[in-house]
# Entry
Amino acid sequence: LLLYSLVWTRGVHGIRDNDVDDAKTGVMIGSYGYCTQELVNLMVFGRAYSNVFDGSKRLGSAQDGWYVMQGAPRRAPVGFLSLFEAKNDCIEVGSRNKEPAS
# Structure
């Protein structure tokens, strides 16, 4: 029920069209029944962003068009750490997630 409440509050179209990096792969429940980063960010920030870095990042160029990836928009009320970052496994957890606002 919590998942339904979160998704319906934000709206399926709001999540798909505004939050996730890729509307085709943006899901709330991933492999093995684990929640995805989108679901964690939906609970923490009210937006289903796909990443844990600070702010947004642009890939591409002005000529070819920018691809914008969304991360943490502000300091989170709770901290977030990643085992993958500790193992240097290509994930960057931004300071907005590591240093909570409270």
Notes: The longest helix spans residues 2-10. The helical segments are 2-10, 12-19, 37-45, 83-86, 95-98.
